[in-house]
Design brief:
The protein is an all-beta fold. The protein has one helix and 24 strands. β1 and β2 (about 35-40) form a beta hairpin.
């Protein structure tokens, strides 16, 4: 149960390591850039194909866990909340700890999103956030996915309902393993013995990584003879490249464990928006 009294509520948590079927797929794009989107599976992009080359680890690639395929929004928090606990508005709150004793990637990964608009080159989806054991504040989210001949543009907006709430969100693309990436962050958040980000940020350290960085530059991905540029107005990026088959490059509005390290608050009725773009040269 979520409360200010404690109680971990684990039985109510989505299991990020349990299989998640994509459900019905919607398609947008044509020509060189085509997308398959799974509204019922967390509003995620199931696959991106550019010039016929698959860009993402897909639902049929042998990694069926909810956390491990496609490209999905993370909200109303991104990354881990330490022990699922945080302080807000003078109270202690507990959300379900569902991975390694921590709460990971928000609640939207498992929830079905509503289709608001669907055209040949765009899709708009909405989500009403729960107000229960998983997340005590309610609120809502909107995402827009648009494609052009060489560009995928994604926009996310998270809004508070009738009460204030903390917020941090972002995107989690499981990119098929690149030959190399060009990544020049300004700083890294050190991780403690529990693998959780800590303050203050320090000079970047060599990989492999499962880390959060301060970064304001494009990230360039080289794979299969293609050059993919990733950009965002987010100034925090997580890079996870410890697996042999994929690298996750995740722009987000705040650091991992943001509710404890650098809380951002939406007042009742307020919203926060961010964008993320993939562009092929």
């Amino acid at each position: 149960m979520v409360s200010d009294e404690g109680g971990d509520g684990s039985a109510e948590a989505g299991d990020p390591e349990a299989p998640l079927a994509p459900g019905p797929l919607l398609r947008i794009g044509s020509g060189e850039l085509q997308l398959e989107i799974a509204p019922q599976a967390g509003g995620r992009i199931a696959q991106i194909r550019y010039q016929g080359v698959e860009q993402l680890v897909g639902p049929d690639d042998g990694f069926p866990a909810a956390i491990a395929w496609g490209s999905y929004p993370m909200l109303p928090w991104a990354g881990r909340i330490r022990d699922g606990r945080f302080e807000f508005a003078g109270r202690q709150w507990q959300v379900p700890a569902n991975l390694g004793g921590h709460a990971i990637h928000g609640v939207s990964m498992w929830l079905p999103w509503q289709v608001e608009a669907h055209a040949a080159d765009r899709l708009e989806l909405s989500l009403a956030l729960p107000r229960d054991q998983r997340w005590p504040f309610g609120g809502s989210a909107l995402q827009r996915i648009e494609v052009g001949p060489r560009r995928l543009a994604m926009t996310l907006s998270v809004g508070a309902g009738d009460q204030p709430m903390p917020v941090a969100f972002g995107w989690h693309p499981w990119l098929r393993k690149p030959e190399r990436i060009e990544f020049h962050p300004e700083a890294i958040y050190p991780r403690d013995g529990h693998g959780i980000a800590t303050m203050p940020p320090v000079a970047p350290t060599p990989g492999p990584w499962d880390d959060c960085f301060v970064n304001t530059q494009e990230v360039i991905v080289h794979r299969h003879g293609q050059r993919l540029r990733l950009s965002s107005d987010c100034d925090h990026w997580v890079v996870y490249d410890e697996t042999a088959h994929s690298t996750c490059i995740e722009p987000q509005t705040g650091p991992a464990d943001a509710f404890n390290l650098a809380p951002r608050v939406l007042q009742a009725g307020e919203s926060l928006q961010a964008w993320f773009r993939m562009e092929w040269d």
